[in-house]
Design goal:
Blueprint lengths: L13 E5 H4 L3 E8 L6 E7 L2 E7 L3 E5 L6 H4 L4 E3 L4 E6 L5 E6 L4 E5 L4 E5 L7 E6 L5 E6 L3 E6 L5 E6 L5 E7 L13 E13 L3 E12 L1 H5 L5 E12 L6 E5 L3 E6 L2 E6 L7 E5 L6 E6 L3 E6 L3 E6 L5 E6 L4 E6 L5 E6 L3 E7 L13 H7 L3 E2 L3 H5 L11 E5 L6 H7 L3 H11 L1 H14 L11 H13 L8 H15 L2 H7 L3 H47 L1
Antiparallel strand pairs: 1-30, 1-31, 2-29, 3-4, 4-5, 5-6, 7-8, 8-9, 9-10, 11-12, 12-13, 13-14, 15-16, 16-17, 17-18, 19-20, 20-21, 21-22, 23-24, 24-25, 25-26, 27-28, 28-29
Helix pairs in contact: 6-7, 7-8, 8-10, 9-12, 10-12
Subcellular location: Nucleus, Nucleolus
Keywords: Nucleus, Repeat, WD repeat
Pfam families: WD40
Length: 549
């Protein structure tokens, strides 16, 4: 009985300290709720100021990434459409925003004043996605039936339409011309304007396209009715094996695609556009992806947002929400991350700037680890949420949290069992049960029931009778053992003689009677369950014999 064992109310936790996590801490910055489902999120940097564009059913509005007062909120602009908005896209400079609507109409919007600056020719089909070309001269659009249309920004006309996919085009991604170099040796062509872009669809395919505007020589044009011709050809078709939800560019020359429960990364510099990396084993459908030069963030319907390194593709950290993720947006330099949920709510997280600057390569890793403060997360399971990623031995350090000594532990260490009982009665039922379990294992349960006064005994009995409904099956044995010790060690006859009042005597009897009835009822239920189990086993054995015969 001389050993000391602290009471275990909660299981031990492990802390994870990681250098990567300490450099990628994101704190709450702003949030809000929309009445309709959020269709798109995009960060805009204009005149040195960062703002977030939020697209809902028929509204497009700008939001500050940090909370501001009501006076400054009046400066934020918004655009209301009579028709339902189907898709939006932001030009690279953040000045213009393309919007497609349910009535097959497409417009260009000035994001500073939220006024319409261009209306485009109506499409014959409803548009599902749009994007500005890299040279800002064209808008590329995709339809619900899988067609691609090219719109001229200067004139507003549809210059080209062609079938591209067998299902809805989910996303369009403009690509830089420097990624491709395919010279045209045709002598009749004096100039070629090439626009490269990628499309993804629910038909499991990602296609790389080259849209060419061919300007031909005068002598060749004289014998031809149309001197200017447009061509659209497929450069490569990539198989994703799932309906593709979104595509993006990372590290300048890598194409990343997400859909189903899989992420794939393709190298565009290689001739065959090989898949160089894949991340799988997500619990549900991956709905969105957003990237910059440092990280790419992935949103999933399993309520998680996972962040990865753009260069090494290593998992960095994740955020968990109470709803599925429909959209994610990252700003330049990873300063902000915006997340939109299924219920129309959105939140913005701001990156915490690291206090310690990057050191040179000559400094040893041990010195860097000593300088940097470890960032504590929840558990190892938190790190594993990245899916298909394992931490390196040099990357993380696992430490056991020091057990905090409570007042209850100190009393048990000094064998003050009755004082420990008084504190446990004031704390909670789990603490009380843990105390009984520990004292029973030490063989000291009878000590808390010995020579108690009437008030302390009746207080203990009332506490037990009040909380009997919280008892588990194994806890009734402890309660029965304690009641037995109270009846023997407390000398009930002496307590009854001390109190001549009939009410006090009846009070003790009623408490003990109520507890004993509860214990006996629970015991009967367990006996009935055992008998039922035996009967079921006999029936099963007879059924097996019948089947054999």
């Amino acid at each position: 009985m001389g050993d000391y064992i602290p009471i275990e109310i909660e299981p031990k936790r492990r802390a994870l300290y990681s250098e990567i996590l300490s450099n990628n801490r994101y704190l709450y910055s702003n949030s809000g709720n929309e009445n309709e489902t959020i269709k798109n999120l995009e960060f805009r940097i204009f005149n040195g100021e960062t703002s977030l564009l939020i697209t809902t059913g028929n509204k497009l509005k700008t939001v500050s990434p940090i909370k501001i007062n009501e006076e400054n909120s009046s400066k934020l602009t918004s655009f209301n459409s009579k028709n339902l908005i189907t898709a939006t896209t932001l030009r690279k400079d953040g000045r213009l925003c393309g919007i497609s609507m349910e009535n097959n109409e497409c417009i260009a919007l000035d994001t500073e004043t939220m006024t319409v600056v261009r209306r485009f020719e109506k499409s014959s089909e409803q548009l599902s996605s749009i994007a500005f070309s890299c040279d800002k001269s064209k808008i590329i659009s995709g339809t619900l039936t899988g067609k691609v249309s090219i719109l001229e920004v200067s004139s507003g006309e549809i210059v080209f339409t062609a079938p591209a996919h067998n299902d809805m085009i989910r996303c369009i991604l403009p690509l830089e011309n420097k990624l491709f170099s395919y010279p045209n040796h045709d002598s009749s062509i004096i100039n070629t304007l090439n626009i490269y872009f990628a499309t993804c669809s629910y038909d499991f395919n990602i296609k790389i396209w080259c849209f060419s505007e061919l300007k031909q020589a005068e002598n060749y044009a004289a014998s031809n009715a149309s001197p200017n011709k447009y061509q659209l050809k497929v450069m490569k078709t990539l198989k994703h094996n799932f309906p593709v939800e979104c595509i993006d560019i990372i590290n300048e020359n890598k194409l990343i695609s997400c859909g189903g429960t899989c992420i794939k990364i393709w190298d565009l510099e290689k001739t065959e556009f090989e898949c160089i990396h894949s991340i799988a084993n997500f619990a549900r459908t991956i709905t969105t992806i957003s990237s910059n030069e440092n990280i790419f963030a992935v949103g999933c319907l399993d309520h998680n947002v996972c962040i990865y390194d753009s260069k090494t593709f290593e998992f960095i950290r994740s955020f968990n929400y109470n709803k599925g993720i429909v959209k994610v947006a990252t700003s330049n330099c990873s300063s902000y991350i915006a997340i939109a949920l299924e219920d129309g709510s959105w939140s913005i997280r701001k990156k915490v700037s690291s206090e310690i600057k990057e050191t040179t390569r000559d400094v040893a890793n041990e010195d860097i680890n000593n300088l940097r403060k470890g960032y504590r997360t929840g558990t190892i399971r938190y790190y594993k949420r990245g899916r298909a990623v394992s931490a390196n031995a040099m990357d993380i350090e696992i430490k056991n949290c020091k057990k905090r000594q409570t007042k209850l532990d100190r009393l048990l260490r000094s064998y003050s069992y009755k004082k420990a009982l008084e504190i446990a009665l004031k704390m909670s039922w789990p603490h009380f049960i843990s105390l009984l379990k520990l004292l029973s294992s030490r063989g000291a349960l009878h000590l808390i029931a010995r020579e108690n006064e009437y008030e302390k005994t009746i207080k203990l009995l009332k506490y037990i009778s009040k909380n009997m409904g919280k008892c588990g099956p194994y806890q009734f044995i402890l309660i029965s053992e304690l009641i037995e010790h109270i009846l023997h060690e407390s000398n009930i006859v002496r307590l009854l003689n001390q109190n001549k009042s009939v009410e006090n005597k009846n009070e003790i009897f009623e408490c003990i009677k109520k507890i004993s009835q509860k214990v006996s009822l629970e015991t009967k239920q367990h006996v009935l369950l055992k008998e039922f189990k035996i009967a079921v086993e006999i029936i099963i054995q007879n059924c097996k014999k019948c089947l054999v015969n």
